[in-house]
Design brief:
Strand content: 5-15%
Number of domains: 2
Strand order of the largest sheet: 1-3-2
Number of helices: 6
CATH superfamily of the largest domain: Winged helix-like DNA-binding domain superfamily/Winged helix DNA-binding domain
CATH class of the largest domain: Mainly Alpha
Number of strands: 3
CATH architecture of the largest domain: Orthogonal Bundle
Distance between the termini: 35 Å
Helix content: 55-70%
CATH topology of the largest domain: Arc Repressor Mutant, subunit A
Length: 123
């Protein structure tokens, strides 16, 4: 299951804060801030989808993520590779490195990351 763009934005604020009440989440938004009812609706949808949960303190709810940010984005990237690059990570890497405006320094950093992962796999 996926999050809508609005839900994903709210989830990013929740990941950053780890636990938050609605007022904390509202404060994270830039001006103009969304309506409280909008945030409440998004939070309910996200809870129904199993992305977040909450603890009740009187009339207040403290929300927290059930899904790790890395797990969520890993699933997205893997889906992208599967759906657009014939499930080929090397096709994805080729596209990513040639079709984005990466600097020489960024490409070197990517090479270092790949080299590190290769060393881990060889052990």
């Amino acid at each position: 299951m996926q999050l809508s763009k609005a839900e994903e934005q709210l989830m990013k604020y929740l990941w950053r804060q780890e636990k938050a009440f609605m007022k904390d989440l509202l404060e994270a938004y830039p001006e103009p801030k969304p309506a409280t009812t909008t945030i409440a609706t998004l939070l309910k949808r996200m809870a129904d989808k199993g992305f977040i949960a909450y603890n009740v303190y009187g009339k207040s709810r403290e929300y927290y993520p059930l899904v790790k940010k890395t797990d969520y984005f890993s699933k997205h990237v893997n889906g992208l590779i599967k759906n657009f690059f014939n499930n080929s990570a090397s096709q994805f890497a080729s596209f990513f490195t040639s079709e984005t405006n990466l600097t020489e320094i960024e490409l070197e950093e990517l090479r270092a990351i790949v080299d590190q992962e290769l060393q881990k796999k060889k052990k």
